[in-house]
Write a structure and sequence with these properties.
Chain A: InterPro entries: NusG_2_sf. Chain A: It holds the Pfam family NusG_II. The structure holds 3 protein chains of 3 kinds. Helix content of chain B is about 35%, strand content about 25%. By secondary structure, chain B is an alpha+beta fold. The longest helix of chain B has 25 residues, at about 15-35. The two termini of chain B are about 40 Å apart. Chain C is an all-alpha fold. In chain C, helix 5 (about 100-120) packs across helix 6 (about 130-160). Classes of the chains: A alpha+beta, B alpha+beta, C mainly alpha. Chains in contact: A-B, A-C, B-C. The interface between B and C is large, with 34 and 41 residues.
Chain lengths: ~120, ~350, ~180
C-alpha cells in the first residue's frame, strides 16, 4: 500500500522559512519604498518625495504645515477655521486630506486596491 | 495508479502536454484581451466645487477626456454658485431674501426644490430643505467662522421657522415662495444633483464615456471601468483612516453622511452639521450612513435623512429605505455596522 | 471509467467549496480564499499534475458558472490562481514534502497570481502594495487546505483503496505509484 503523505515532514521547514523570508522582505520593501505625496492648491502643485515638515504657502500667504513620513502624511497646522484637515490625522496611500477653505488637497500618487472612497 | 481497465483514459505525457498547452494558450489569449482593455487611460482631474473637493475620472474613445472633465467641473462650479446659501448669485438666496413673495425661477431650480420637498415628504421631514435657519444659528454656513452652540431658547425659536410645508409652488408660472420665515438650504441634495448632471454631460459628449465623479465623498458612476468592470469603492471608517467595506458598482451612485465631515468640539462634545429638523440639535446615535442608489440625488438626500433617522431607529432605515431605492450601510455610535440585505448585493462584484 | 467518476466527484466537491467560499469576505477586492484548492492539493500530491490540472480548471469554470460569475474578475483570479497552484503543488510533491508546505507554496502562488490578475484588471502596478497581506492570508488558507487535504487523502485512500488498486496482483505491479508516462 502506498505510504500516505503526512501533514508535516522535516523538509517542510525549508519551504515555510522561504515563504517567511519573502514575506519579511516584501514588508521591508513596501515600507522603505517611499511614496510621493501631492499637495495641490488653487494655484500650485507641490510634490513631496522626501520625508520632513513642509510649509505650504500660496502667493506668499501661509496656509498650512504638512508633515510627511514616507508612507504617511498629515497636516500639523492650518489657517482654516474648522481645522478638519488637522483633525484627519495621519493618512496613508489611498487616503486624502482636504482643506476646503484653503482649497488644498493632499493625496498620494499611487493607487491602491480601491478606486475611490465614499465618506 | 489507475487499474488498466481501459486504454483511453491513460494519463500519458502526451495528453498532459496537449492539455497544458491548450490551457496555457487560452490563458495567453485571455491575458492579451485584458491587456488590450487597459489601453483605456482614465483622465483624472481634482479641484474644488460645491464646498468640497471634487475628483473627476473619465475616459472616452471619441472625445478627449480632458474636455469632458473640464466641462463637468465648469458645471459643478456653476451649480455651486447657483444654489449656494450665501453667494450673491444664488437663486436660493434670492428666494430666502424675499420671504412671503413669489419668486420666479428657472426649470432647473424649480424641479430641484420640488424634488427636495418630495424627499422631505417621503422621509417625514427627516430630510428637510428648509433647515436654513438652524444651520445659520449653529454657524454651519459661509466660512464657518461663527460656529457656536446656540441656547435652548434660540433653538426653540428657530424651530418655529422650519418645515418643508412652508415652501409653496406655482407650477404654471414656475414660482416659489417661502412662508413663516423659513430658509431653504439645498446642501443636502445639491451635491447629488450636480453629480447626476456630470453623468449627463459626459454622455452628451460621448454616450460610451466611462468613469466616475466624486465630490466630497459622494460618487456618481458614469460608466463601468474599461467598459465592463465594476469600480471598487471603499467605505471609509468614520473614525480611523481605513476602509471598513468595499462595494462594487458598474452604475449608479453612492453617498455618505458622517459626523466627521463638518464639526466642532465644545467641552468634549462633538457638534456636527447634520441637524435633526425635529430637535434642532445634531442627530445622535450614528457615526455615518452610506447609501447606494441609482442616482446621486436620491443617494445624497437619503443619506442625510438616513443619518437623522438611524440614531433613533436603525431597523426602520434598514427595512424601509430599500423600498425607496436606497440601500443603506449604517455605522452606529460605538462602531457597530448594520446594513440592509440589499446592500450586501453590492459587496460582491 | 473509474477515473472519470473519481474526478467528477472531486470536481463537484471542489466546485461546491468554490461557491461556498464566495460567501466569505476577503480583504482584497476580487480576491478569494481558495479553500476549494484543498481538493486540488490532494490530487496534486497523491495523483499527479494531469488530474490536478483537470480538476483545477473544471472546478473554476463550473463554480463560476453556478455562482453566475463566469468570466467575471473573481473567476479570472480563481482560475489562474488554482491552475498555477496545481502546477506548483504537483511539481513540489515529487520531492516528498508534507502537505503543510505544499499547501503553503500552493496558496502563496495562488495569491501571487491573483494579485497579478488583479493588477491587470485594475490597470495599475501599485496593487502589489497588498503583497504582504496576500502572503499572510495565503499562509492561513494554506494551513487550512493542508489539513483538509491530508484528511481527505487519508479517507479516500484508506477506505476506498480498492477503488483504485487493481484486485489482480498479477498486473503491472505499479500499485500505488503516481502515474508517470
Amino acid at each position: 500500500m502506498k505510504k500516505v503523505r503526512s501533514f508535516f515532514r522535516k523538509k517542510d521547514v525549508v519551504l515555510i522559512i522561504l515563504i517567511f523570508v519573502v514575506l519579511i522582505f516584501s514588508i521591508l520593501v513596501s515600507e522603505k519604498k517611499g511614496s510621493k505625496v501631492v499637495v495641490q492648491g488653487k494655484d500650485f502643485r507641490k510634490i513631496l518625495s522626501k520625508p520632513g515638515t513642509y510649509d505650504i504657502t500660496e502667493n506668499g500667504r501661509f496656509l498650512m504645515k504638512v508633515e510627511f513620513h514616507g508612507n504617511r502624511v498629515r497636516v500639523v497646522e492650518s489657517t482654516c477655521p474648522l481645522k478638519l484637515c488637522v483633525k484627519t490625522g495621519w493618512v496613508g496611500p489611498g487616503g486624502t486630506i482636504i482643506c476646503v477653505p484653503n482649497e488644498v488637497i493632499i493625496f498620494f500618487e499611487e493607487k491602491t486596491d480601491y478606486d475611490t472612497v465614499t465618506w | 495508479m489507475w487499474p488498466s481497465d481501459s486504454n483511453d483514459h491513460r494519463v500519458t505525457r502526451r495528453n498532459v502536454i496537449i492539455f497544458s498547452s491548450l490551457l496555457l494558450g487560452s490563458l495567453a489569449i485571455l491575458l492579451t484581451l485584458l491587456l488590450i482593455r487597459t489601453k483605456d487611460q482614465y483622465y483624472e482631474l481634482r479641484d474644488f466645487a460645491l464646498g468640497t473637493s471634487v475628483r473627476i475620472v473619465v475616459s472616452s474613445q471619441k472625445i478627449n477626456p480632458r474636455t469632458i472633465a473640464e466641462a463637468i467641473l465648469e458645471d459643478m462650479k456653476r451649480i455651486t454658485y447657483k444654489f449656494s446659501f450665501t453667494d450673491e448669485r444664488s437663486v436660493v438666496k434670492k428666494i430666502n431674501d424675499h420671504p412671503d413673495e413669489w419668486v420666479e425661477v428657472d426649470e432647473e431650480t424649480y424641479s430641484l426644490i420640488k424634488a427636495a420637498c418630495a424627499f422631505a415628504e417621503l422621509t417625514n421631514g427627516a430630510f428637510d430643505p428648509t433647515i436654513g435657519r438652524l444651520l445659520e444659528l449653529w454657524g454651519f454656513t459661509g466660512n464657518y467662522e461663527n460656529l457656536r452652540v446656540p441656547s435652548r431658547e434660540e433653538i426653540e425659536e428657530a424651530l418655529k421657522h422650519i418645515g418643508y410645508k412652508n415652501v409653496l409652488f406655482d407650477d404654471k408660472n414656475m414660482r416659489v415662495m417661502v412662508k413663516n420665515g423659513v430658509k431653504i438650504d439645498l446642501g443636502g441634495i445639491a451635491k447629488g444633483y450636480a453629480l447626476d448632471r456630470t453623468r449627463q454631460i459626459a454622455l452628451s459628449f460621448d454616450e460610451n464615456a466611462t468613469g466616475f465623479v466624486e465630490a466630497g465623498g459622494d460618487i456618481r458612476i458614469i460608466g463601468p471601468k474599461f467598459g465592463k468592470y465594476p469600480w471598487v469603492i471603499g467605505v471609509k471608517d468614520p473614525r480611523e483612516d481605513n476602509v471598513i467595506d468595499y462595494i462594487y458598482l458598474k452604475s449608479g451612485a453612492v453617498a455618505t453622511s458622517g459626523d466627521y465631515e463638518r464639526y466642532f468640539v465644545v467641552d468634549g462634545v462633538r457638534y456636527h452639521h447634520i441637524l435633526d429638523p425635529s430637535t434642532g440639535y445634531p442627530a445622535r446615535g450614528v457615526w455615518s450612513v452610506t447609501i447606494v442608489a441609482e442616482d446621486a440625488t436620491t443617494a445624497d438626500a437619503l443619506s442625510t435623512a438616513g443619518f437623522v433617522m438611524a440614531g433613533k431607529d436603525w431597523r426602520k432605515v434598514v427595512l424601509d429605505f430599500p423600498n425607496m431605492g436606497a440601500h443603506p450601510l449604517i455605522v452606529l455610535e460605538g462602531g457597530t455596522i448594520e446594513k440592509s440585505e440589499t446592500f450586501k448585493l453590492f459587496e460582491r462584484e | 471509467m473509474r477515473r472519470i467518476t473519481f474526478l467528477s466527484v472531486l470536481t463537484a466537491l471542489s466546485s461546491t467549496f468554490y461557491v461556498l467560499e464566495n460567501l466569505l469576505p476577503f480583504p482584497v477586492p476580487f480576491g478569494r480564499w481558495g479553500f476549494s484548492n484543498s481538493v486540488v492539493l490532494m490530487i496534486a500530491s497523491e495523483i499527479g499534475f494531469g488530474d490536478a490540472l483537470i480538476v483545477a480548471s473544471a472546478k473554476s469554470i463550473l463554480g463560476a458558472l453556478f455562482s453566475g460569475r463566469f468570466l467575471s474578475p473573481s473567476f479570472l483570479t480563481g482560475f489562474f490562481g488554482a491552475v498555477s497552484a496545481s502546477l506548483v503543488e504537483s511539481f513540489l510533491a515529487r520531492f516528498d514534502f508534507g502537505y503543510l508546505s505544499l499547501s503553503a507554496m500552493g496558496s502563496f502562488v495562488n495569491n501571487l497570481v491573483q494579485l497579478i490578475v488583479i493588477s491587470f484588471l485594475v490597470g495599475s502596478t501599485k496593487t502589489f502594495l497588498l503583497f504582504p497581506l496576500m502572503v499572510i492570508l495565503g499562509l492561513v488558507s494554506g494551513t487550512v487546505n493542508a489539513f483538509l487535504a491530508s484528511k481527505m487523502g487519508g479517507i479516500v485512500f484508506e477506505n476506498y483503496s480498492r477503488f483504485f488498486f487493481a484486485q489482480k496482483k498479477a498486473t503491472d505491479g505499479i500499485t500505488g505509484d503516481r502515474v508517470r508516462s
